[in-house]
Amino acid sequence: MDAYSLGCILIEIAEWTPLRKIIKKLIDTSSSVDVKLSDLALLVQSMHGRYITEGVASFRLGAASMKMLVLCIPAGDEKPDLADFYSALEDMAACDI
Fold it and tell me: In the predicted model, what is the mean pLDDT of residues 74-79?
């Protein structure tokens, strides 16, 4: 879950907006409506599609952050290897921001 949280933060940075506003665009979160688990599953698929498949995050964050985001918000039930996280972290650390 920690990796997913990091992915959400990277998406917030890419959009320059809080995650709650991104979610409101995709899911009805009004108090009179119960949010279903299936809606949340669609949220993950939607985020993966927009930010990873369509390349929005790569354009806005750069290759190093995109490499980390792919690991944090994987497609389906993929479980990235810990070594891949270390590699992505080293790439991010090498960026001079």
Answer: 76
- The total number of structural domains in the chain stands at 1
**How many C-alpha atoms does 50 have within 13 Å on its Cβ side?**
16
59 pLDDT band, cuts 50/70/90, is very high
Which structure tokens are listed for 14? 């890419």
Compute how many other C-beta atoms are within 10 angstroms of the C-beta atom of residue 57.
24
Give the tens place of pLDDT for each residue, 21-41: 888 887 777 777 777 777 777
Pair 9, 51: CB distance under 8 Å: no
Residue type (1 letter), 43:
L
Containing structural domain, residue 81: 2-93
- Residue from 27, 53, 21, 56 nearest 40 by CA: 27
In this structure, what DSSP letter does residue 16 have? T
Residue 45 vs residues 32, 75, 89: alpha-carbon distances, Å: 25, 7, 24
Q: At which residue do the structure tokens 């891949």 appear?
A: 84
